[in-house]
Amino acid sequence: RESAEVDTYAARRAKPRFYADENFPPRAVAMLRQMRARVESAQELGRIRLSDEDHANYALKKALILITCDRDFLDNRRFPLIHSPTVFVFNFGSGTAREMRQAFRCLAPVFVSPQFFDKWWKIDAQRDSWIV
Question: What does the alpha-carbon distance between residue 98 and residue 7 come to, in Å, rounded to a whole number?
Answer without folding.
Answer: 33
